Amino acid sequence: MVKVAVVEGDGIGHEVIPVARDLLEAVRPDLEFFDVEVGYGRWERTGSACDEETIADLRSADAILFGAITTPPDPEYRSVLVQIRKALDLYANVRPIRGEGVDVVIVRENTEGLYSGIEWTEPVRACTLRVVSRQGSERIARYACTLAKSRRHLTVGNKANVLKSDCLFVDICTAEAVRAGVPCRTSYIDALCLDLLMHPDRYDVIVTTNMFGDILSDAAAYLVGGLGMLPSANIGDRHALFEPVHGSAPDIAGRNIANPVAAIRSAAMLLAHLGDPASAAAMEAAVGRVLSAGIRTPDLGGDAGTREFGAAVLREVGRGKA
Fold first, then answer.
1. How far is Cα 37 from Cα 17, in angstroms, rounded to an integer?
2. Residue 166 annotated in active site
3. Please, what CATH class does the domain formed by 1-90+236-322 belong to?
4. What PANTHER family does the record tag this protein with (predicted)?
C-alpha cells in the first residue's frame, strides 16, 4: 500500500488541500492517506509547530501532500518548511511554469543558501549565513542536468559578479552541464528575472540557489495567472513533498475563494513521482478543461468558489475515466 501524508497547514491550506486530496482519492483509490498536523495553528495551540515525532510520521510516507504554512515574524518560531526540508534532505525544489507560450522549469537548491538556518542576532545587527557548498551545488546541478537532458537546455541563474559563493555555484553547474552533454548558459539573476518575463520562450530549465529561485519562480507566476496556478515538488533521494507555491493567505482564508489549481497540480506531480504519469496527466487535463469552460476562481476573474471549482474538476476526471 502506498502511503501519502496529508498536511493541510494553515490558512487556505485547509481549503485547497482537501480539494486535491479528493481528486487523488478519485483517481487512485488504492492510496492510503493519513493526516499530519504542523504549522502556526498548532504552534499557537501547543507551543510546537513541528517536532521529531512529526518528522518521523512524514518519513514513514511514500509521498507528502503539503499545504501552505504561516511563518510569523517571531524570533521564537522556526520555519516549518526549512525544518522539514533539512530533516528529509529535500534538496531539489522543482517549480514548473506552464501555460500558453510558456514551458519553463525552475530548479532551486533547497537546503542551504540564505535558508541555511544559520542565523544569530547581535546588539547592533542580525546575521544570516549564506551557505553554498560544493556537495549541495553538485547534486542540484546534476538534478537539473538530468531534467534538461530530456528537454532542451539549461540556464544557471546567479550573481557571480558580486557574490563569491555564486562563482563556486556557477563553476560547478557549468562543469556538470559539460559532463552531462547539456547545452548551458549563465545569466545574472536580476537580468534573468526581467528577460524571463519578457521572453519566456528563450528558457527551458533554470537552476539557481535557494533565495534566488524562490523569488524568480514567484515572479514567473505572472506568466501563467499568478501564484494560485503554480505547483512545486521538494525532492530528495528518499523522500518527496509536494506543495502549492502560494502562501497561507490568511486574509482570504475561510471564504471559499482560494484558487485550488496549484494544490491540484501539486497532487498531479505527486502521482507522476509515484510512477503514475497517466493519472497525473488526466488530472492536469481535467483542470485545463474546467478553465477552458470558463469556470474560474475570483483571482482569475471568475466567481467559482474553491469547493465548486474542485467539484468541477472532479466531474471532469470522472468523465475522463468513463
1. 13
2. no
3. alpha beta
4. DECARBOXYLATING DEHYDROGENASES-ISOCITRATE, ISOPROPYLMALATE, TARTRATE (PTHR11835), ISOCITRATE DEHYDROGENASE [NAD] SUBUNIT ALPHA, MITOCHONDRIAL (PTHR11835:SF34)
